[in-house]
Design brief:
CATH superfamily: NAD(P)-binding Rossmann-like Domain
Strand order of the largest sheet: 3-2-1-4-5-6-7
Largest sheet: 7 strands, parallel
Shape: globular
Number of strands: 7
Oligomer: single chain
Mean pLDDT: 92
């Protein structure tokens, strides 16, 4: 059957709307990788629920997304706060009635100390925010996830070889790889659970690494593609795993690090 150019363009547009009619929660999503993911899902048709700790950041991010035609609401949520986690889920369900995608992106790295020099309070914070709150958030969200839903954890290349200055952070990100496997089994067959392990991306979160020109060049040299990653790179991988294009993929981690060695 012959299609006119307009019809072909319409079909291409429909194909790119992989999340039309779907609802996606992205935590820590007012800047950096989280914002990039929310933007990508929204541009592909999702109704997006974004969150972060500060109302000002939430309001500014919502405005940016709405100017791009994205259906979005913003909720203040410090993921370690039980009431704010509950409010994030409640506001989403009140507005949209269900949840199709959860992207767990919130993370902290409050210390560059060696693991054996790290204070217990810091160890607790790293574990709570980087691992435990991901579980607690899904405990609240899971009743509203239906057949065909998807969860994506955001881990790190550091999960495979934790660096000395980010040792415990890397260990918590390694835990997300195991959590992905365990929850993929537990939540099957209705919900798929996957993980993205970003390489080095020059965001505010990673600024203490990438702002140093010598360190930046060293990372680029270790990377087969000779560049740092972008938030768009991470968003593209996350959108793929969350979409029906990955409907036969669960329990897997996709390393998006430009070829930095991670595993065989």
């Amino acid at each position: 059957m012959f299609l006119s150019q307009r019809e072909r363009e319409k079909k291409r547009g429909e194909k790119m709307k992989r999340f039309q009619g779907k609802v996606a929660i992205v935590t820590a999503s007012t800047q950096g990788i989280g914002f990039g993911i929310a933007q990508r899902l929204g541009l592909e048709g999702a109704s997006v629920v974004i969150s972060s700790r500060k109302q000002k950041n939430v309001d500014e991010a919502v405005e940016k997304l709405r100017t791009q035609g994205i259906e979005v609401i913003g909720v203040v949520c410090h993921v370690s706060n039980p009431q704010q986690r509950k409010n994030l889920i409640d506001k989403t369900v009140q507005k949209y009635g269900h949840i199709d995608v959860v992207v767990s992106n919130a993370a902290a790295n409050p210390s560059v100390d060696n693991i054996l020099d790290t204070q217990e309070s810091v160890l607790d914070k790293l574990w709570d925010i980087n691992v435990k709150t991901s579980i607690l958030l899904l405990q609240s969200a899971s009743p509203y996830l239906h057949k065909g839903s998807s969860v994506v954890f955001i881990s790190s290349i550091g999960a495979y070889q934790p660096q000395a200055s980010m040792g415990m952070y890397g260990v918590t990100k390694t835990a997300l790889l195991g959590l992905t496997k365990a929850l993929a089994t537990e939540m099957a067959p209705n919900t798929r659970v996957n993980c993205v392990a970003p390489g080095f991306v020059p965001t505010h979160f990673a600024d203490f690494i990438t702002r140093n020109e010598d360190v930046r060049k060293s990372i680029e040299e270790r990377t087969l593609l000779k560049r740092l990653g972008t938030t768009e790179d991470m968003a593209a991988a996350t959108a793929f795993l969350a979409s029906d294009d990955a409907s036969y993929i669960t329990g897997e981690t996709v390393v998006v690090a430009g070829g930095i060695p991670s595993r065989l």
